[in-house]
Amino acid sequence: ENLLQVKYVLSQLNKKAKLIYKNAEGFVIKQFDRNTVWNICNPTLAEKFNKMKKNCVDLSKICEIKVGMVSGLDSAFKISNDFVKRLSKKEGEKIICVIKGNDMEQFFIKNKTFYICVDDVTTQTTLEKEYPNIFKHLLNYKNALTKRYDYNGTIEWWQWAFPRNRNTFIKNKENPKIFVPSKDRRPYSRFCYNEEFCFGTQDSVVLTSKGDSKFKEELKYILALLNSKLLNDWYKWNGIRRGDVRQYSFEPMKKIPIKLIDWKNKNEVNAYKKLIELSEKAIKGEKVENEISKIVSELYG
What we know:
- This protein has helices spanning 2-12, 43-55, 59-62, 74-77, 81-85, 89-92, 124-130, 132-139, 142-146, 166-171, 219-226, 229-238, 250-253, 266-283, 289-300, and strands at residues 18-21, 24-27, 57-58, 63-67, 78-79, 95-99, 113-116, 177-181, 183-184, 192-194, 199-200, 204-209, 240-242, 245-247, 257-258.
- By secondary structure, it is α+β, with helices and mostly antiparallel strands.
- The strands form five sheets. Strands 4-12-8-10 form a four-stranded antiparallel sheet. A four-stranded mixed sheet has the order 5-7-6-11. The chain has a three-stranded antiparallel sheet with strand order 9-14-13, covered by helices on one side.
- Strand 13 and strand 14 form a beta hairpin.
- The longest helix is centred in the last third of the chain and has 18 residues, at 266-283.
- The two termini are 38 Å apart.
């Protein structure tokens, strides 16, 4: 029955550019241009996305977009709460809070994970003498840690493989951040808000405000936009997908269209304030996604 519907729609596309018949939808789109993304989405959506692009600024103009750090062997560095309790005060200073992809939900963080980070320890003797519990723990994984990659002697076996963007997390330790899983099978976006000093690993991407004075929009407003149905649909068609897995990284995320507020427009200012209010409720776990999506859709026009 479905095949018959598809056959009928295909037979009619020489007469109409767009047609919906029962379960089948057909439309005619232009052939792709070289070096451009060819989105097989219907013309109505494509037109709407083009309008958004013209009337908005890229996310990368407002936010820094950074991927998380890579340990090279999470099982060695990831520790339990009970392990943390057994550490001395000095050892406790070498434990960092990490937000993993599984810790994230839409708008809020449901859990945090503890990791060992002794990258500033330069000798094994120092590690064993001053951080005995951490040393004993990591020693169990020494063989696996030494086989992670060929570093040409640039790191020791107890250090993280690629501590990329660590300074970004440290620099913004007192600033709000937005986390999102780097890969996700969910049909909705899971951008979540965090104000605590936490790091991200390779399964997460973090957004921080660039602090540009010409952009007055708060991060909680950006959070509402990113979690709305409209921008979720935009990313579905304009981001990177592999099967049903979406990839969140700098390249696909930098062009997410962000609607800037016309601060002289009373309706837009009121919508902005309402989205901030709703974001704060969503961060606390309240179900306000539909209300947010409705306001965002009206705001983008």
